[in-house]
């Protein structure tokens, strides 16, 4: 619906279970493309900011990887659901306001309403990516089942009923991430080239595209 002229040429909406490796993969994509071309948008960022303000909590620790956020995760999920029930696009709008990079990587879509919002606002640009791995691998990475978290919509909302554009299997015995990410990186390079005024099909190396987009 909202195809903003100064907005992105490509939006990659990532989802996956806890400890599936979403952040690792989205950080890898940004590193390959460069921050001049690609930005990472975390829907949990504005959610945690609002939650911290209303509950007088330490935002830096809520955003970090440590145990602090786990103390509040279940309540924060319930609080976020109440906000979304009032306005399903509330956190999506906050996360996307102001950024004009040609490629957006949304690292943490968790609900069907998240994906639906991007497909409604940016129908041409939006593509969905699922990161998956076995439960055994997730346990090895430190995951354990938490009632009220792992059985909530925030973890299960995109488990079924979605036809993803790409599926990345983040396992030791799967094809390499370089191989699996190749079509995604190619699409991102082509999108960046269009946004930076280069001729389609002549985008060249990632370094060349970064240079063009930083002018």
Automatic annotation (TrEMBL):
Pfam families the record matches: P-mevalo_kinase (PF04275)
Keyword DNA damage (UniProt): no
Organism whose genome encodes this protein: Ataeniobius toweri
Keywords: ATP-binding, Cholesterol biosynthesis, Cholesterol metabolism, Cytoplasm, Kinase, Lipid biosynthesis, Lipid metabolism, Nucleotide-binding, Steroid biosynthesis, Steroid metabolism, Sterol biosynthesis, Sterol metabolism, Transferase
Chief place of localization: cytoplasm
Highest taxon of the lineage: Eukaryota
Biological classification of the source: Eukaryota, Metazoa, Chordata, Craniata, Vertebrata
Localisation: Cytoplasm, Cytosol
Protein name: Phosphomevalonate kinase
UniProt-listed Enzyme Commission number(s): 2.7.4.2
Pathway it works in: Isoprenoid biosynthesis; isopentenyl diphosphate biosynthesis via mevalonate pathway; isopentenyl diphosphate from (R)-mevalonate: step 2/3
């Amino acid at each position: 619906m909202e195809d903003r002229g100064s907005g992105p040429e490509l939006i990659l909406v990532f989802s996956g279970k806890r400890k599936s490796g979403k952040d690792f993969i989205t950080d890898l994509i940004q590193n390959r493309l460069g921050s001049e071309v690609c930005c990472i948008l975390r829907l949990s960022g504005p959610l945690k900011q609002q939650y911290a303000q209303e509950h007088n909590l330490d935002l830096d620790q809520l955003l970090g990887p440590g145990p602090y956020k786990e103390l509040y995760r279940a309540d924060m999920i319930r609080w976020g659901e109440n906000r979304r029930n009032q306005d399903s696009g509330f956190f999506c709008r906050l996360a996307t306001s102001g950024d004009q990079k040609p490629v957006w990587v949304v690292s943490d879509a968790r609900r069907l309403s998240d994906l639906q919002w991007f497909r409604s606002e940016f129908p041409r640009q939006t593509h969905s990516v699922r990161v998956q791995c076995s439960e055994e691998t997730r346990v090895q990475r430190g995951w354990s089942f938490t009632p009220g978290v792992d059985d909530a919509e925030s973890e299960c909302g995109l488990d079924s009923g979605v036809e993803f554009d790409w599926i990345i299997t983040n396992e030791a015995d799967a094809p390499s991430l370089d191989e699996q990410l190749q079509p995604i990186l190619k699409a991102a390079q082509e999108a960046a080239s269009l946004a930076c005024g280069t001729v389609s099909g002549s985008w060249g190396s990632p370094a060349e595209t970064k240079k063009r987009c930083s002018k």
